[in-house]
Write a sequence for this structure.
């Protein structure tokens, strides 16, 4: 196993403090993702792309501060991000039958993720990074797996996707998609709360007990059937060529293909389910 510490290409955080809004304070949660690539990944190019992305997103290279006055901050301290690299000689190929939504009692994806230690954040440790990455090379198949663990205090899944999309653009020598990130938080004050907007916030008005939420989520297998799709490197390159060549990323061209396929064969003349926009 090899550990790389990747720093921002240029320090842009300069120890600035960003105060967090209440919705960011799900300190015990992190977003974990796994991406499988069918062909070789250039580690030097990946580290270079990551360093450029960190300069553009200094919040990610910061540390979570837990003061005693009920205010919470991220200090944009330009720390390096740990990237773990490991070679796997036992697995013949990526097992396509793995569930995208993992069984809550048995996480098969855990060996491919270097998970954020959220308990350290809760207890005020300033040593724990807010992003951890893990690269696994399957030597038998030549596939590469990127595991991502993203602390929720950085933002939700949308913020994580934006960061990874920017990383992908830099890796493919493309300019990042605008608008570029702005690191500000609009903090709600008690005397500013507009009660008339409360019915729109279903995550507050329709909140339920955690045990009810987990029970609902555990029934996904009874409602949905997982569909596994596998694309070769040559097929992905062809999709990118058809979608506009070097002007778009491989991931964007793949997403466009899947949406077009669903709209053409599943949602034709179905305005309610037709996919018009994805994030």
């Amino acid at each position: 196993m090899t550990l790389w510490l990747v720093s921002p290409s240029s320090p842009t955080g300069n120890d600035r403090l960003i105060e967090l809004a209440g919705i960011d304070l799900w300190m015990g949660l992190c977003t974990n993702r796994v991406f499988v690539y069918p062909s070789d990944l250039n580690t030097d190019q990946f580290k270079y792309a990551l360093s450029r992305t960190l300069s553009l997103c200094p919040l990610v290279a910061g540390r979570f501060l837990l003061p005693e006055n009920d205010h919470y901050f991220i200090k944009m301290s330009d720390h390096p991000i740990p990237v773990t690299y490991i070679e796997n000689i036992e697995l013949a190929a990526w097992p396509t039958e793995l569930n995208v939504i993992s069984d809550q009692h048995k996480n098969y994806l855990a060996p491919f993720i270097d998970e954020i230690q959220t308990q350290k954040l809760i207890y005020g440790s300033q040593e724990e990074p807010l992003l951890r990455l893990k690269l696994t090379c399957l030597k038998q198949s030549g596939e590469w797996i990127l595991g991502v663990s993203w602390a929720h205090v950085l933002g939700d899944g949308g913020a994580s996707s934006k960061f990874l999309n920017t990383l992908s653009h830099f890796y493919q020598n493309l300019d990042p998609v605008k608008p570029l990130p702005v690191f500000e938080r609009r903090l709600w004050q008690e005397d500013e709360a507009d009660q008339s907007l409360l019915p729109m916030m279903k995550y507050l008005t329709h909140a339920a007990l955690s045990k009810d939420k987990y029970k609902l989520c555990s029934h996904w297998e009874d409602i949905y059937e997982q569909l596994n799709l596998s694309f070769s490197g040559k097929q992905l390159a062809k999709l990118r060529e058809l979608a506009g060549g070097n002007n778009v990323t491989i991931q964007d061209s793949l997403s466009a293909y899947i949406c077009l396929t669903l709209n053409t064969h599943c949602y034709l003349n179905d305005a309610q389910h037709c996919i018009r926009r994805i994030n």
In short: The chain has two domains: 2-177, 231-279. Helices lie at 43-56, 118-122, 157-171, 202-205, 210-217, 220-223, 233-243, 250-265. The mean pLDDT is 85.
